Amino acid sequence: MTEIENSERRVVSVIVVNEASVLSRITDLFSGRGYNITSLTVAPIPDSKYSRLTIVTSGSVRVIEQITKQLHKLIPVLRVYEHCDLVEKEMALVKFPITENLSDISALCGAYNGKIVNVSDDMVITMVADEPKRVDNFLSMIKRYNPKEIVRSGAVALER
Amino acid sequence: MQMSGAQMVIEALIAEGVDTVFGYPGGAIMNVYDEIYKQKDFHHILTRHEQAAVHAAEGYAKASGKVGVAMITSGPGFTNAVTGLADAYMDSIPLVVISGQVPMSLIGTDAFQEIDAVGISRSCTKHNYLVTDASDLARVLKEAFYIAASGRPGPVHVDIPKDVTAQIAEFDYSQSIELETYKPHTKGNPRQVKKAMEAIAKAKRPLFYLGGGIINSNAAYEVRELVAQTQIPAVETFMARGVLSYDDPQLISMLGMHGSYAANMAMSETDLVIALGARFDDRVTGKLSEFAKNAGVIHVDIDPASISKLVNADFPIVGDVKSVVKDMLEHVVNINPQRYESWRETIANFDELHPLTFHEDTERIKPQWVIKRVGEILGDDANITTDVGQHQMWTAQFYPFTRPRQWTSSGGLGTMGFGFPAAMGVKSAAPEKVSINFTGDGSILMNCQELMTAVEKKLPVINIILNNNYLGMVRQWQTLFYDKRHSETDLSTQPDFVKLAEAFGGIGYRVSTKEEFDVALKDAVEKDVVAFIDVVVERLENVMPMVPAGGSLFNMMLLEKKGSK
């Protein structure tokens, strides 16, 4: 198949009823039909019985269309948005040894909407929140400062 | 009203108008069976295997158009039923399957007969529930029946822990249900319908591609009307047999891997595919890039995910086939049936060139002959089921189907062992018809224990075993594609099928001539008891024509002309 060549990154948001095993219904659908999940975030929507999932996936136009249709078929799914024009943010937390150049690190974090958020005897933890591509950049920039642990949140997105 | 969870299950089934439940009791479902025991008029059919209970419910649903119901216990009871759930899911058969589960306090402890049933059934059901409180039961069961039967039908699984069936709670089944997240779209977009009809009026070589969705939506008679008024040729999928009567002048035949030459050539030459409730399955399309290569596509389906999944639709219409075809009929005056005259001639020529037929033999019985013969003798008086394999394809090819819901077979999943229990379900839904199950010497052994159910419940299914001492379809592929290396497909070691039937109290016949077959069939119909007719047929007969897997529809292996060997 040439599907992989035409594969493009897509962000899909899914509004689901908050109920037992709804997340497995979604992830089973992806694994059962051979779709990719790059990242997935989920949290309840305030003051409602729904949750919102943001799924970063990839595939050809046909695959993405199938993903949205198949998601829609699941009974607890209220709405599926396949985003085109969106604001997208992702958070990353990175732990550095306190012996590294903190002013450099702090300045870099500042450039990516972040800062140092925790300091302990031997480590500092920094937080950045930016577009996923920019988070990629940040993470490659800070390699020289000997990061000990990195965690990314996965993307969240809203249509403009 | 206050009652136990088990009582609620019974009350819900009664409220839904369920007249037959197929099932098998066990530890975790005992509370419900205890309630069944207390009922005066509750028709429960005890199958001898849980898989058979679900297949019987499928047969019942297919023949009646109602939701089939099966009931089983936890653990192995449930896992035995999974094949049935998957089968119903693939063929869009409406079922509600209720399983017992270990008590809530034991869930997750690897308790005796515990398995994560909803975890397993999630990928082979339309929806499923684990009920954790008896006060949810009325809503859940009501939703289950609604979801199973509406939209694209399918099986719904309801798993109920043992303590929930014992729990006393309020039960009110009269509450209407509101599913905000599930609203199937049944009415086709009127503008799309109009555009589609304009495209048909302009097409030179349009072709109806009729699918099983027509049966599910009870739209066969509307479709017959549309076909008659437009006089556009039609092909049926395996699942759609009986939508048009076999003698309908516009019906070419079944298409696909074992479709007729004319049906597959028509699909290859058409300039407009009119797909009604069909899903472009790989056994239908063959090589996708060559499928109906120069044609536009109108695709009517209730499931949006079926549209443009494999073949791009130029006129996608999401809706119930029955409703859409009714709308199409309103525009039918703009279509001139004369326009397609030369196209019909082209197809007639295809059919003349390579008709769907087989080589008769004066001595040995050809399996196709048996099917044609049953068609001649019983025809419309019989409902037909099959197992899976060569006999299944021959039945789809050669039985003279006259009406929808006459035909029940495992299409999507291809489940050997489906036919006999499904035929019992068909018989219980339509007792006035003779229930025939065409089967093979491989398939019949996969659920032959159901002889006991059929004897006990007086379900006189006639199983016609086309016995070639082979796992025939696999043998055919080995002959054609594996250089005749017949690995593990020789079934020469066989039971005595006559004695087997008799051991359960049924009746058995062993038949090796055409005369004997006629006598046996006539006798079995008269005796009105479950029967095995073991027919010795030509061993090495192949199902032809054949489109090799992944090949193009127009590249068929054809029946060798007589004497050209």
Topology readout:
The complex is a heterodimer of chains A (160) and B (565).
Chain A: E1 8-17, H1 22-32, E2 39-44, E3 50-59, H2 61-73, E4 77-82, E5 86-97, H3 102-111, E6 115-119, E7 123-130, H4 132-141, E8 149-152, E9 156-159
Antiparallel strand pairs in A: 1-3, 1-4, 2-3, 5-7, 5-8, 5-9, 6-7
Chain B: E1 2-4, H1 5-15, E2 21-23, H2 30-38, E3 44-46, H3 50-64, E4 68-72, H4 76-90, E5 95-101, H5 117-121, E6 127-130, H6 137-149, E7 155-161, H7 162-166, E8 168-170, H8 190-202, E9 206-210, H9 213-216, H10 220-230, E10 234-236, E11 251-254, H11 261-269, E12 272-276, H12 282-285, E13 296-301, E14 315-318, H13 321-330, H14 341-353, H15 367-377, E15 382-386, H16 390-398, E16 407-408, H17 419-429, E17 434-440, H18 450-456, E18 462-467, H19 472-481, H20 497-503, E19 507-511, H21 514-527, E20 531-536
Helix pairs in contact in B: 1-2, 1-6, 3-4, 3-17, 10-13, 11-14, 15-16
Protein traits:
heterodimer; A: 160 residues; alpha+beta; Alpha-Beta Plaits; 2 domains; 5-stranded antiparallel sheet; 4-stranded antiparallel sheet; 28% helix; 41% strand; elongated; B: 565 residues; alpha/beta; Rossmann fold; 3 domains; 6-stranded parallel sheet; 21 helices
Describe what you observe in this structure.
The complex is a heterodimer of chains A (160) and B (565). Chain A folds into two domains: 8-84, Alpha-Beta Plaits (2-Layer Sandwich), CATH 3.30.70.260; 87-159, Alpha-Beta Plaits (2-Layer Sandwich), CATH 3.30.70.1150. In chain A, 28% of the residues lie in helices and 41% in strands. Chain A has helices at residues 22-32, 61-73, 102-111, 132-141; strands spanning 8-17, 39-44, 50-59, 77-82, 86-97, 115-119, 123-130, 149-152, 156-159. In chain A, strands 5, 6, 7, 8 and 9 form a five-stranded antiparallel β-sheet that branches. In chain A, strands 2-3-1-4 form a four-stranded antiparallel β-sheet, covered by helices on one side. Chain A is elongated. Chain B is built from 21 helices and 20 strands. In chain B, α3 packs parallel to α4 (76-90) and α3 crosses α17 (419-429). At the A-B interface, α1 and α2 of A face loops of B.
